[in-house]
Each structure stands twice: as C-alpha cells, then as structure tokens.
Amino acid sequence: MAKSLFDKVWERHVVTDETPSNPSVLYIDLHLIHEVTSPQAFTELGTRGLLVRRPDRTLATIDHSTPTLIDADGHRPYVTAQAEKQVETLFENVEKHGIKIHGWDSPNRGIVHVMGPEVGATQPGMTIVCGDSHTSTHGAFGALAFGIGTTQVGHVLATQCLLMRKPKSMLIQVEGELQPGVTAKDVILAIIAKIGVGGGTGHVLEYRGQCFDDMSMDERMTVCNMSIEAGARAGMIAPDQTTVEYLRGREMVPEGDALDALAQEWLSLRSDPGCDFDSIVTMNAAEISPMVTYGTHPGMAMPITGIVPAAADEAEEKALEYMHLKADAPIAGTKVDRVFIGSCTNSRLDDLRAAAKIMRGKKVVADVTAIVVPGSEQVKLDAEAEGLHDVFTSAGAEWREPGCSMCIAMNGDKAAPGELVVSTSNRNFAGRQGPGARTVLASPETAAAAAVTGFITDPRTLETAA
Amino acid sequence: MSMKSLKIVTSKTLVLPAANIDTDQIIPARFLTVTTRDGLGKHAFNDWRYNDDGSETDHYLNSDEAKACEILVGGHNFGCGSSREHAPWSLTDYGVRVVISSEIADIFRTNAVKNGLLPIVIDKRAHQWLLDHPGEEITVDLENQEVRLPKNGGTFSFDVDAFSKHCLIEGVDEMGYLASQTNAIDAFEAKR
Ligand code: SF4
After folding, report:
1. Who is most buried in A57, A285, A360, A388, counting CB within 10 A?
2. Ligand 1-lining residues (CB < 6 angstroms)
3. pTM of the predicted model, to two decimals?
4. Chains A–B, number of C-beta pairs less than 8 Å apart
C-alpha cells in the first residue's frame, strides 16, 4: 500500500500497536528539554525513584527564561530570582542524570528548536519531542516532531516512549513560485489564514509542492514551526538533497560513506505516489502576498496591501478593539512602537540576512525600539562574521544575546501596555509580549521595514542598498 | 502520581464564550518560571482577573459563584497555543474538573487527561445551549459518556478515548502502563 512520509516515520517507531482499549507505544529518538517544562518532570522521576532511560537520546539547552543582556560586569540580569532558579534547576537535573546540555559555555546554546538542527541532532525519519509546542519546527527535516506536556516529558525521560493514537493526516500542496519579496513566513501565515487556527487539529500536516522544494532549510523550518498555529500536532516536509546538504558536516551527523548510506534511507522517506490523506488543501504560491496579522490569533492574517476585514463574530470584534484597528481601513501605515526580530520562527542566519538587507544604510525611526535576538550563539557568531550586527547597530537597533526573548516575554523582555509590536515570532495572543501589548506577526523583511519607517510598511516598496 | 477519580460531576457551569481561548489567556507565560506544579489557580486567567496593581477586576471569574463551578464551558477551539501543562494545572487548582467545548486543542486535551481534568468535545447544538445558559446545573457522566442538560436541554453523548476514560475513572496515571511495557521497549531497541 502506498504510504505517506508520516505513515513511514510513524510505523518505524511503533513499539506496540494501538488497540481499541490502548493507544500505541511510540518510541522517541530525540528528546529535547529546556528549563521551563522539565523541572516538575524530574521531580516526578525522583519521587518514583526512576532513572532517565536514555540520557544519550536527551539533549538540553536554556532559552526561555534566560536574559538577553549582559551587564558591564559580565552578569546576566535575570528578571526574577525564580527565573534564575529555574535555569539552575535544569543544570542540576542534567548533571544528576548524565544528560548533555548546551549551557553558557556552548557555542550552540540558544532556542531549543534552533540548537537541535544546528548540531545535527535533528535528522530525517526521527521521532522528536520537546515540552514545547513549536517542536513542529523539526518536521522541516522529515522528522515527526511535536510538542508534549510536562507529564509526557516525564514519560519520555523514564521510558523513551509516549502513549499516543495515530493522528490524521493532511496534505498542504502549494505549487508554483513565490513572487519576489514573498517569504516563507508569508506562506505559512497565508496557510493558517486559509485553514484556520483550529484547521489542523488532530492532524499531522505534510507540506508539498514546488513552493517548499525551492526553500532553504531555514525557510522550511519557518513553515513547519507554525504548524501548531493551525492546531496541527506536527508539520513535515520530505527530505531531499537540500536536507542532506544542510546536515553534512554537522557535529552529530556521520561523515563519508555512513552519511551516504543514511542519505539513501532519508530520501526514501518521501511519500509514495497515490498515498492517502484524510484531507487535502491546495494553494497557488504565486497568489501569496507579504502577510501581517491584524487580530489576536495567527489565523487573523491578511495581505499587507489589503484592508482590515470586518469582524466575523464577537471574538473578532474584541480582537480588533484590543489591536486598536478599524475594519475597512488599510493595515499599511499603522503606527509602530516596537520591532522584534527573533524567535524559533525567524532568528536563523537567513532571517537575519533578510532583515539586514532592508535595514542596511537606514535608521530605525526615533520613537521605535527595535531589538534583534539571534536564535543561538552560533547564529550570533555567523551573523557577526558577516557584519550583520553592524548593520543593525548602526541603524540603531539593539543586538542581543540569544534566547526566546520577546517571543514569550517571560525573561523580562517585553512591550509596554498598548504598544504595537511588529514581531517575527509566532503568536499574537493578547498579552503574549507583555500585558496589553499588541502584536503584529510578520516576516523579518516586514519587521525591518516597520523599524525604519515607523509604520507597517510593505518591504517591497523600500529601496535596498546593494 | 495518583489522581482524584472522576466518574460523575454535577455542577453549575462557568461559561467563557470567546472562541480560541489560548493558553496564554489561561496562564500568562510570566508565571511559568515555577519549578513546582502547585498553587497556580490564583493565576488562572490572570490578566482577566487582576489589574496592573494586583487588585481584582470585576470579572466573573473572581466571584465565589464562579469559583464553585467544576465545569467550564469554553468557546470553540479552547486551549490552543502552547504545550504548557501549567494551563490544566492552573484550572484544576482553580477548581475545574471538566472542560466542554465544540473543539479543544490537541496538546491541551492530552495534558488535561493526565491531570484528572476531563476534556469533552460536544455536539455544536449542545455547545450552543450551554453557551446560552451560563450557570445552569448540568451533569457530566463519564461512565456513560453523557452530558445531561436540565430544562429539556436534552442528553448528549460524547466520545472519549477508552484508555483515557479508564485512567480518569480509576484515578491512575499512564506511567504505570508505560512502565509495564519495558520488555517490549527493550525488544524494540534491541532490533534496531
Ligand atoms: S522562541 Fe518562542 S515559540 Fe520558540 S521556543 Fe522560544 S518561546 Fe517558544
């Protein structure tokens, strides 16, 4: 029978198959952990006297609660003592259980979903979990990757397995080529706007078509990252030569013949022709415009050239009120207070290059605060080697230390009540970037354009320096 | 962790009708720096319930009546957003034992059952009735998989995964079952 990419990866990891009374036991190849969703799981393990079954399949880093500034004395000022304790607790737990951590001294410390692929821990055909919903990012490699809660973090620590019934499948087919100036972020926002924030609930998505074939791994990660914003468990893209070349030479990836053999296996994961999906959505890449959100969930997204749609219900009405936006008015030209370039959606080298291209030779307008937060120490080093940090700082933007920062605003980086933030992150929920903060999700290009104009601006209308 | 067994819950309903109530509304991220799971009920829907200075707003969630409700009825696509288990922890600590909606996000649902919180996705008509009748006393019968509405509202059945049902009714968690699979896991690892 013809099988999809998802079918193939799922089947290879079933320890015991599901029955009407019991879910499947699914084996997990890679468990990523961070400070926020793991402490209670380690406590549970301790209470039960359990050990970590496979420390070698577990990999940790620190990102959510970590400061993105270093003060003059070399200290990292935590937002609260509790945040610092949370990070210390992770260090203690990994030490005790023999788990490798990319901590302060690692060149790969950073957002967990940037770190995993960067060190080559993320590989095609794997099952990957993390106590974080944006684990879907790793699906860009043809892995089955999804977020879990803390109780399940405990399950995986203790047994390297999860109890789960097989989700449904959905094919998102996007054929054709993107127009110049349209990015991976715009593609995923357009997909979520089309299928809705609950449109993928209960499903694993497969993104297929020329639009994704043409993308770099950084771009594919941007797409898969936001699968969860459509409610999906996971999003996957079949491994191809782009995937193999990205992984070649990375720390945890075999070399030479061993890689060639692995690559053959990876390439065979591609969905068989004629395999079944529970549902299929098709779109034309050429019809996608640069997108921005105008409401308080990622499905309320629209072309930047358009007018804010009328509220469909009471919730949308409230959302527009929260955003201080009026229906039927153009979204371009809306006054901006802050710009955030970062997060596991858009903080990789490609993203920073794209933002720098817009900002080069321009100035962040006086009443806008712009911060750029690279996804990992490695991204930071690579960007600095290219001089991107100089582009940002000479424009008047801040160049920070890696971490989640204003994506989730739990480390103290946040907007003031009422401020409008153009953000390259993934969630525009009310209060996500600070109580009362108003978030507009956009691509790095659009965020950079907002920084240098002070308004929501179509980046295609700006001249870029050579 | 053993959980409180859940068979039948009869309670007035706490209705939060907005669609897409996300986990950042249920508990904002700045309360996630904790390293324990207890006592988060005071932060359930924090930014709806408290002013900037920490004083309580006049939101219904702050009333004794609301706090006495064990059944929460939420708008469509309840619990979307992050994987934070702090969301169900805060709800159970607030006093909620059942969440009903016309759609509930996957990870929230998975996390809920692991904490003795029953997520129910119900027929659109019944959901509408519940939204239109806040504060009515209803009965959720897990054994028979039924929601019974008063005043001729009718009786509606709901689906629940057999394994989750067993765990909720018996008040047992999944770790025991997973641990019982050790031989199968060993065999799986050996043959790869
Ligand atoms: S950057 Fe944002 S979405 Fe990504 S892991 Fe951090 S908090 Fe989560």
Report:
1. A388
2. A 63-64, 111-113, 132, 134, 343-344, 404, 407-408, 425-426
3. 0.96
4. 175
